[in-house]
Amino acid sequence: MESAMNRPPIIIMGMHRSGTALLTRMLESLGLFVGWKKEGNHEAVLFFNLNNWLLSQASASWDNPSPFGSLLERPDLIDPVTRYLKGHIGTIHAASYLGIPRYILDRSVFRISRPWGWKDPRNTITLPVWLRLFPDARVICVERHGVDVANSLRVRQGVILRKRTERLRRGGPSYWLRPRRDGFTDSLRCRSLEGGFSLWEEYMREGRRHIDSIGDSGLVVRFEELLRAPEEILSRIVSFCELECTPGDLASAADLADRSRAFAWKTDDELLHFARTVASRLKVFEY
Q1: Cα(265)–Cα(287) distance, rounded to whole angstroms?
Q2: Residue 99 burial (C-beta neighbours within 10 Å; 0-12, 13-18, 19+)
Q3: CA dihedral for 8, 129, 190, 165, sign (positive or negative)
Q4: CA-to-CA distance for 129 and 235, rounded, in angstroms?
Q5: What is the pLDDT of residues 209-235, one digit of tens each?
Q6: Could you tell me which residues are beta bridge partners of residue 222?
């Protein structure tokens, strides 16, 4: 642990990417720094790539997370992995997160004095490793109804398949000559409601287990509650994160919430039927 680190991070996790992205955008508008270079779902590229690397060390992936537990049980592996991460984020690589001007000042994420953190659903799986580096981190776990998550994952995979198939159709000879770094889907499992739902269960179990283990350093936020009463819930989150903002700032951030997205499954006959078939499994997580 670097003694120069002035402020521990806020680590945001949870299965639903757009749900965690909404909260991240809200907190960013209230002063939480979540990275200079980010990808489309508001995930800092530095930590996004490192989480993928972490999962690969156990032959795991975002949609097959269970093998990662074996890495945590091997001190001969987890120790060098942790040392590598510490060195990586303490060098020039931190510039993609900090931005060049801030990197010139801080040089490392271990020297950030303002409120900062990052969001990534994969944090739900890799959190024990990050807590080895940042034992004082504050952790927010965003939960959403499992049927909405499963449907969102299925829809996303359908969009990916259509786009990449269309790219193949239009590609011509150049498509065959260039090496492919991706396939036509990034998760066969999530092409079905059952596959996505069972993955949601895995993430929910891991998220709950981590939050229980860190006590007051963890906070569970229900996506539906955030949409129902955004100012009330956001006020509690701001206090947890120790952010300073005015009532006007809070109200502006709360306006980002789209209340129509809560329990979207209730407006779809197929999803209503699926919800009935998994009712007992939903009840395990108080849904």
Answers
A1: 13
A2: middle
A3: positive
A4: 29
A5: 999 999 999 999 999 999 999 999 999
A6: 143
* pTM exceeds 0.70 for this model: yes
The CA-CA-CA angle for residues 65, 68, 69, to 5°, reads 115
Q: What is the pLDDT of residues 157-197, one digit of tens each?
A: 988 878 877 777 777 666 666 666 667 778 989 999 999 99
Calculate the alpha carbon distances from 162 to 16, 18, 31, 128, 158 in Å: 21, 20, 38, 36, 6
Please classify residue 9 by burial: count the beta carbons closer than 10 Å to its beta carbon, then call 0-12 exposed, 13-18 middle and 19+ buried. buried
d(CA 20, CA 43): 10
At what angle are helices 269-277 and 193-214 packed, to 10 degrees? Answer: 60
Structure tokens at 120: 């990534």
Cα angle 38, 137, 37 (rounded to 5 degrees) comes to: 10
Give Cβ neighbours of residue 23 (< 8 Å, ≥ 6 apart): 12, 119, 140, 142, 221, 226, 237
In the three-class reduction of DSSP (H, G, I as helix; E, B as strand; rest coil), residue 154 is classed as helix
The CATH T-level fold of domain 10-283 is Rossmann fold (3.40.50)
Report d(CA 220, CA 22) in Å as an integer. Answer: 15
Determine the Cα–Cα distance for residues 75 and 115; give it in Å rounded to an integer: 31
In 116-192 the beta strands, taken as DSSP E runs, fall at 117-119, 138-143
| Spatial separation of the C-alpha atoms in residues 225 and 232, rounded to whole Å | 9
DSSP letter, residue 9: P
Contact between residue 241 and residue 260 where contact means Cβ atoms under 8 Å apart:
no
Q: How many CA atoms lie within 13 A of 8 on its CB side?
A: 17
Query: Which tokens go with 249?
Result: 């700032």
Helix-, strand-, coil-residue percentages of the chain, each rounded to 5: 60, 10, 30
